[in-house]
Amino acid sequence: MNVQSIEADDKRAAIFTATVELIAEKGFHGAPMSEIAQRAKVSVGTIYHYFKSKDDLIMKLHVDIKTRFAEALLVGDDEGMEPYQRFYNLWRNMVKHLASNPAERAFISQFDNSPYEKTCGTDQHFATFARTVVFIQYGIDNGMLKPLPVIVIMEATLALANAVTRLESIGLTIDDEMLKTTCRMAWDAIASHE
Amino acid sequence: MNVQSIEADDKRAAIFTATVELIAEKGFHGAPMSEIAQRAKVSVGTIYHYFKSKDDLIMKLHVDIKTRFAEALLVGDDEGMEPYQRFYNLWRNMVKHLASNPAERAFISQFDNSPYEKTCGTDQHFATFARTVVFIQYGIDNGMLKPLPVIVIMEATLALANAVTRLESIGLTIDDEMLKTTCRMAWDAIASHE
DNA sequence: TCTCATAGAATGAACGTTCAATCAATAGAA
DNA sequence: TTCTATTGATTGAACGTTCATTCTATGAGA
Asked: Is residue A39 in some structural domain?
């Protein structure tokens, strides 16, 4: 990778950062290209050099954020762990990642609840979270988790993590105790209790 | 109430319906006043006769939807019921209401995850769901529910109901069995299991 | 020289909002 | 009853702004 493309990546990253922050603060409306450019310290023209359109920028940003999120979940993951320990690790990774990236959390919430979401297939969603999906499927097959579709278990867990971290951004403190109790909450939701 | 104001309420309701549908379909961006007017079969000017601005329209619409949602939850509610039965009733009301009003569900999701949400205080939120809040607080005080802040329990339940009904709009079938299992999911999440 | 990166002015469409002009209904006076 | 004044509801064209996007020019490697 040469000097030019490193610099190019800098701009790209700056545009991503500016966009995610602006959308988190002011929503999809309220994030014009001119302001994105200003915040990223590039010109409007430069954005169009890297992205076909505003929609293209938002889609690529979404993939980027989701990919890094999915990766963050797997830190310290090990198939050999006790199921609950493994889930706790997953939960902690999830909450920590969302809590320390509030703009990304807000962006995801807005994106996933907007009409944009319908442009991404469930397949891609499953592919990004492949390893987590396998973990869940395994749990269902063994009667450890509730007999629900994988997607329900997955979306339920994500919804809870999102709810908890959203509350953090408006005043809730997430210490170790809170992490433990909320993890129990999420686990109890999906575990079969047989 | 005279003939004029009945007709006036018709227009108001038509504007509300058009707005909620359009925003559910195309998001906050993608719902211009001109299109709202067209769908509501009124002129643009008429909207401004009833609402100060687009923001005002959206805020008032939000209050309207949340109020009717909170009311729907209480159908058949009775303090004398067994706690789980009472929760089941609450859950069913919640899921049925959201599932049969998909546009309102989509609107709420988008609103609550957007910067608009920050303009509504938590107080108002609690006031709207007053009776439900009391039920939860009672459950916490009696050790029946997990020792978490009321708002966490409440938002967790709402998040789960939203997740489930969102999945319905993309293919999941919610029959009685699904209603029962997902209710168990939500209850297990918040119950203390002691 | 040629290519890619960058800037920022220019463009045209779309937006929220305003406004002068009607229309419909009611009430009171004659 | 009939005429008139008043009010509120309704319209859609017009306005000024802002937006996403394009275009042209410039600069820096290769």
From this structure: yes
